[in-house]
């Protein structure tokens, strides 16, 4: 395949369904397709479910952006290296990656998250209270979908709720492709300075939170902890918010499924907001789906393409919570598979149960076609979601 066949890397666009229809053509044709980043650098897009899983588990394929050829949609977009930001472990390969993962796993087990359910429920209830206090209409993104994960991650890390606006604004810059490299670098610097202060505070006055426990067990340095805290703030916030908002639209347009516990997994598969999050580079020649990828070539395993692979999920565009969606790769796959997934599941479950029980007259404020979907972000989602009740 020659680079003259290459398609743009970001195939989303106004008026187009998501995932973009080109993904289905690529899956049918060769599975892997050549694309170009805005910088002009060619990359491989991986679209089939089995190939995405193969790419995400092959030790010859790296997550480390310091390797030549690592795909950067923009120079600094969401992928600093662990050299630039110590503790940014999503950008480390094993064995360096293992130390971080081991230190953090106890904080995100099913059991630990179950213990947090009452606190998460209280946050969801408070967010619904605040939304209802607005009268009979609101923006479900701003007033609910963003507020729940933002307050939850703040609680986990021990971030004072009053600082929420600050870190929300900074995260937004970091996940907007159209933001300039300068804007992004500045946002990242401010956020890092903020978490440094927070760590100093927790070192002096420990609380019952993740950061205080990590400081006490001493496995990670203060510098590394700052990167970890920043990664958690960014990773756990807009991702979940976009899922909650898109899922609310799907449930409002498929109300027969409201209240069914199986919706969460299917919504994660269907919306696959982190489509272009798992960026990789081959560090040796490797064959994926019958295609030779040469050392130094960038790879983008598209999780939305994999989650809509008709060989894995029949009628993939159809919302069907009764199907078995468990094999989806919305959280990635392999050693970097999302650390926060147990938390996300509980947040989504409680968010929908509470929202639809407490606001039974909830409906869309504008037709679905008029909703402002996000095409320019690293994550797919909604800029706003006008609702009434
Ligand atoms: C990794 C998706 C929410 C923390 C990932 C990856 C994906 C993902 C696709 C893999 C990245 C890669 O392979 O390079 C999502 C989605 C979410 C979500 C769709 C919401 C619906 C969260 C939350 C947290 C979190 C709530 C934390 C509280 C992380 C971390 C990693 C990660 C720390 C890196 C793990 C590692 O490198 O070992 N996530 N995520 N995520 N996620 Fe999530």
Percentage of β-strand residues: 5-15%
Q: Which structural class do the helices and strands define?
A: alpha+beta
Identify the overall geometry.
globular
Tell me which ligands are bound: protoporphyrin IX containing FE
Number of strands: 13
CATH superfamily: Cytochrome P450
SSE succession: EHEEHEHHEHHHHHHHHEEEEHHEEEE
User: Which fold name corresponds to the CATH topology?
Assistant: Cytochrome p450
What proportion of the residues is helical, as a percent range?
A: 40-55%
Strand order of the largest sheet: 1-2-3-9-6-4
What would you note in describing this structure?
44% of the residues lie in helices and 10% in strands. With 389 residues, it is α+β, with helices and mostly antiparallel strands. The protein has a single domain, classed as Cytochrome P450 (Cytochrome p450, Orthogonal Bundle). It has a 6-stranded mixed β-sheet. The chain has a 3-stranded antiparallel β-sheet with strand order 5-13-10. The protein has a two-stranded antiparallel sheet with strand order 7-8. Helix 7 (164-174) runs antiparallel to helix 8 (181-204). The radius of gyration is 20 Å and the shape is globular. The chain starts with 6 loop residues before the first strand and ends with a strand. The site of protoporphyrin IX containing FE (HEM) has 26 residues, from helix 10, helix 11 and helix 14. Protoporphyrin IX containing FE binds next to helix 10, helix 11 and helix 14.
